[in-house]
Amino acid sequence: MKKVIFYSTFALFFTGCAQNIPTHNEAVSDIKKGPHAIKPRSAFASPHTNGAVQDNWLKTFRDPKLNKLVREGEAHNPNLKVAAFRVERAAALTKLTESELKPTINIAGFYHDNNNAGANEVSFGGLGTSWEPDVWGRVGNLVSADQALTRSQIADYEFARQSLAAQIATVWFQLNANSKIYEFNKEIVKIQEKGLFVLNKREEIGQGNKRDVHLSKALVASAEDSARASLAAKERSQRALEVLIGRYPSARITAKYFYRTLPKIPSGLPAQILERRPDLIAAEERVAAAFHQKISAKLLHLPNVRLKLGLGPNSINDAITSLTAGIFAPLYTGGAIEAQVATATAEQKAAIASYAWTALRAFQEVEDRLAAEKHMAVRYTYISTMVKEYKTAYDMTIEKYRIGESTVLDILVIQGKWIKAEIAKLQIAKERLINRVNLHLALGGSFDTRHANYKLKQRQ
Description:
Blueprint: H1 2-15, H2 24-27, H3 30-33, H4 64-76, H5 78-98, E1 104-112, E2 122-131, H6 138-204, H7 210-244, H8 270-276, H9 278-298, E3 304-314, E4 318-328, H10 336-402, H11 408-443, H12 454-458
Antiparallel strand pairs: 1-2, 2-3, 3-4
Helix pairs in contact: 4-6, 5-6, 6-7, 6-9, 6-11, 9-10, 10-11
């Protein structure tokens, strides 16, 4: 009994050291104070609107069908399911590492027959337990590393989820724009066909010429080609959207309406991006995991303690209890431990550099999107003016042609400019919507409210 108490006290004394696992802030201190630390500006350089970053940005588009498509994509997109399964795998690996902190219990039996030598039968059986206390915290650091990796997978899943919502919104707006362009091109076909009809009639009564008729026929064919090309683009958008939401790509999903104006959105502060964006949170957690793995590798140099306890009967009438303990320290490993430490150190440095790159890229994305917001708004004004003026000039040229003051070529020149400006206006309207989606994503705003505080939850 004295030995049991001694060994138990010995184990408890040393395993108290295992509780000294560095905190998360200590594990990631190098990205906040070290040479690779990111120092965000106090404000964005590009034109921006002050205020807190919006969550539930999907609602700002006021599009119930888009909301429904995103929910369908969440439920059925295969890539999102892959990200979810990676979270499950990481959690399972963490449990596997945690099991090393607990004793193992086995049941065993042994039978030996010595009757041929005139002896009695001998039998052994019972329970055996073994435990390697985490004296220095080596396994505890591995557990912390796995927990950080699990949190990184959770953040990766959240980023995949938000990216999927952004992709669905982007393709949805592309589909709506392509549908509008297709409808516009069909109207141009009708206009060209009407013009060909008029020219044929004028030629029949001797007021026109064959050249104008041939030009008009070519324009009809050109308009039909543009309509066919825009139809193909529309169908590609339909299939792309169907795949994103997990449907078969049959090009049957229908477009709805198309926004042209957007409200201003607040952009928050640059430093907040580091706390909001899931990809940055995932990168930070990988830095923490690499830190704990390096600490664990260094602790391989220290000795460890192994305890074994056996309890069971020896034959039918006797009982036996055994307790063994040992201390094992590495003397020579051929450089294996040093290699593990060097590997873990390199991986930590790589994780820190990767975080720095991810942060810089995130700031670039925000600055690009904020600048594009301003530029596209100005361009949309210019292009709207172009459409209005070219359309007025086109209508005036048609009237002049009817009274013989202009030619078909005059009409064609002005008509081509009007059509090009009209399509450019639709394209820039689409690009403004897509840029707005990407700005929300770059700022780290969630498309709903369910995961706005997921970072806090995953560390509790």
